[in-house]
Structure formats: structure tokens, C-alpha cells
Amino acid sequence: MARKSRETPEINGGSMADIAFLLLIFFLVATTMDIDTGLARKLPPYNPDQENSDDKVKERNIYVVLINQYDQLLVEGKEMDIRRLRAETKEFIVNPQDKEDLPEKTAKELPFFGEVQVSKGIVSLQNDLGTSYGMYIKVQNELIAAYNEVRDEVAMQKFGKHFDNLPEDKQDAIKDYYPQVISEAEPKNIGGK
Amino acid sequence: MAKFQRKGKGGMPQVSTASLPDIVFMLLFFFMVSTVMRETTLKIEQHLPGATEVKKLEKKSLVSFINIGKPRKEFQSFYGTEPRIQLNDAFAKVEDIRDYITAEREKLDEKEQPLMTVSLKVDDKTKMGIVVDVKQELRKASALKINYSTRKVEAIDK
After folding, report:
1. Which of A20, A57, B38, B59 has the most CB atoms around it within 10 Å of its CB?
2. Residues 66-105, chain B, touching A (beta carbon < 8 A)
3. What are the helix (H) ranges across chain A?
């Protein structure tokens, strides 16, 4: 009797598959494959002293985009449909005909490009406290899209490749060519929450 | 003997299931590795807005999340229906954000601290008022790299 119990009985491996299946199903259910995506932005550093210091930019260099509490757009003093925002913003960034009312340009030395005219334009986005977040993101998206399209166009022209497929040094040069300046002014509370 | 032979010729040979556990284990390991466990349970309703110009959030460990949205049905009796901020597992006030950011920052290595990103997961029906408050608070906490969490869509409906 005692001798018999010392021998270890072989473990039946037949149920191993079942156990593995059980675990597999657990992980299948628990898995969330979604990768977080989003619009990356940078906030300006907090500095309570310089409340009104950014008013010194010339008016032609600022592209004012306002959103009110009813999610309506006012761009450069005119009402605008969001569908036109991207094209209009692109014109502001590029200023192809060097118009008087669109931003000034300064000469700048850039790698790959040599001396180019870089726009001084700033996009200023201002929203009301009652603006919906969905609308705000749509406008942000259009503004970023405008910059991305302009950069992509110049990448195609210069290097014959899409901006995303370029090596980093070339991307940086294009980023300097069309610097993305989207300033977010302190929101106004006109419409109330 | 003859009987057995006939049977063997006629029927299909049985597929060996001995390698089944191996296959299942292989799948199991794949899912175990790729699984990201949901650390927090959302107490708010959250429908993220769509955008086309999205970028992927690179390193999960460097990202802290701030959720904003209307409390879920079961919490509405206590917290109301106004959009609220959820940090980790609990509802929070705007003033709590600075402590939260400090705590999150301390979890990281010193080298990685400037790379910390705050992802704002905000329901698209939320009013900007609360988002602006949060953004101001983030500026005060000097967590300047932010990310508006959005879904990737091909074209946004306007």
C-alpha cells in the first residue's frame, strides 16, 4: 500500500487544451485592441503677468477664428461655413499672391530650400465657454488639416514624396517653412454656460 | 486482421489533435501579450469626437488621462447630469488636477518627465467651459503637452 502511493500517477494531458481554451477565451474577451489616437497640441506656459502682451502682432498677420456658443464660426470678421475653413486657412498660410491683407513674409535660410519667404501668420482660435467640444475639435481639425495639406503640397513639389514619408530632417525643414502657429486665446464668456 | 485492414483503407485517417494545445497556447500567448487591461472603469458617458488629422499616442506609460463627460445613469442621482471630470477611478474637481498631474509625473523617471502627455478624453457634447478650466489648470501644473483624444475617421460630417 505504502509502496504504491509513492509512485506518481501520470497526469492526464487531455484536458490541457480545455484549460488553454478557457484562458484564451478570457484574454480574447479582455483584450482591447484600440490604440489611442488624438490631436496633439501644446499649451502655452502659464504666466499671469503677460495677459495683454500678445497684442503687438500686426492685424494682417493674425487669422482670427471665433466660435460662439451656438457653434457658429466668425472668421476674420465674416461668418463662415466650416466646409470652407480649410481652404481659406490654406490661403492665409501660403498667401500665394502676396496680398496686402494676408500675412507678411520674412526671408529665412532653411536647409534643402535655401532662402525662402516664411510667413509670419498666426492662427488665433477663440471659443466661447458655451461652445461644444465637438465643434471645437472640428475646427481644430480643419486648422491642423490646412497646415498638413500645405506641408504635404510643398513636400510633393520639392521631394516628390508625401510629408509623412520624408526623413526627419526634411520634415523639420518643411515645418520651419510653414510653422504651425495656432494660438488659443483665453476664451470669453459671452453666452454664459 | 483482415477486417481491420479494410476499415483502415476505406475511412479517412484521423487528424491528430496532439498539437491542438500548442496551437491554442500560441494564440493564448499572442492575446496575453497584446492585451491592455482597462485600468479604470468609466463612470461617465463618453463619445469621442471624430477627426481626420489624428496622430497615435506613442508611449502608453507616458500618458495620463483626464476624462470629462456626463455621469452615467447610475451615478446621476448623486452627481447630477452636468459634465464632470474623472481622474483614475473617481470623480474629481478642477482643483484636484494639479495634484493628479504631480502624482502622475512622479511615477515617471526624471528623464521621461518632460515627455509626459496628458490625454483629454472629452465627450463631444461637453461645453468648452469645463475643458477650458482643465486646460488652465494644466498650464498651471505646467503639463503642456496635451492630446485631444479623438477617433480616426475618414471624413468628418459637417
Report:
1. A20
2. none
3. 2-6, 16-30, 82-94, 133-159, 168-177
